[in-house]
């Protein structure tokens, strides 16, 4: 796990880069602590047995993470909670950052490997002497090269870590827990205690965020220094549960796992067993599918008939080589298909997870807003010029970050109240969905014999649950006929109208092979399905020159009651819903406007929400 200057790609020709200063308005105005906006407590929501919708981010890093610290971050867990609660904090590049709307819940999830060690032991790195902002304004591109070089060359993490690093990490962990306790405000805001277990064998991403239900936690987080095998992590969590610590883990970035995250074998290459499936489902009830490193829902290589499969694809590994990441085994929809195939052949299913989104922000923040994006790692992308390749030696189209990173995503949870217990339990039962950033409201139920006018009834949610289940659950035994699905979605009032609602179905045939199909079930305007069930595009109102769009296409609200026309009661199946917005400007278009340059393609994107699946299994 040692990190040295050899882990960052430096070559002497870098010093040949132009060194003129860069005009970068994104660096202004400078942060002013005296005038910074303070967070305000949100009004509490009443207990609701039909559940309230809560928005959160369970993947935020601070200076306690080694990669964040070496990239200039000095913010703490307190800063992170200040940010997600609506307050303004200082970005490592010197300007103030703030969310347009506060979140309802969050977790600081710093890397457990050498947690807090650099913050406690690192020398006074050049960032403290001449920061990123100063280098950019006065030295330009060469200044950023110098900053990276000065920061990393001659500084080896192995030299900073002594045999007593665990003691430092214990103190940092206590500070993390204390910060969550301080900011947790039941009914108003929920702060979860968590960390990131950063397994990365051969540069292949197997990271998990570990989230606790309460403040009773181990003395030191489990880390990949102990083991890179997720089975060992689950065993550690099982031991903690036996000691009264309710906990689960959230896999993320399957898209850069090179096929390992949702493989059809275990970590050691042996066939998946029933015991493995039981442990994985118990300790990993949800997976993260949207974040700064792109989408892990699906990939065009796996879903070639899905016109929306190419959304925010980041398909190279995180290693220095930037090799392509194998698609098979790296995406959630493929995992759900693999799961029902294994269920058909072996009688157990290791992939019965729900989904959420998260940011993976490393600035003690959640950079999920396209028009307010401020990057992930300050030295690499802490300003518009850096992100757009105007003040950086990395090629903008292939660098680890730059224009390839996404302003995404958020976790949506349907829970009775805004408390640790209620939200944690809702996530365990998978009553969750993921968005790529916008706060699209979405409800999804499946059941039998729903009345045709179900969605017109005031009490439709109560009725939908009486004869069915919400997202994330299993359909009750078949009662004859095909299952019905009730879907309702409303746009984020600060984002684009809705284009359409889709249901994605996966099923396994009698030979054990899985299949998938996308059904358009509700849409805006007067469009009609063609003979193949396809729907023409909604249109695009984005003006790249001004980074604006208009909501004169699409609908504010869509709903549908849909019955599977191809249902076979003998076939195991899953169903999830996907809500697509009309096109809106991508963050790169906003940055291009800031810098006065032509925006790169794509200038727009169709943000979305993706639900946890409802499953059907024959008796």
Automatic annotation (TrEMBL):
PROSITE patterns: PROKAR_LIPOPROTEIN (PS51257). Gene3D superfamilies: Metal-dependent hydrolases. Pfam families: DUF3604. It comes from the Bacteria. This is DUF3604 domain-containing protein.
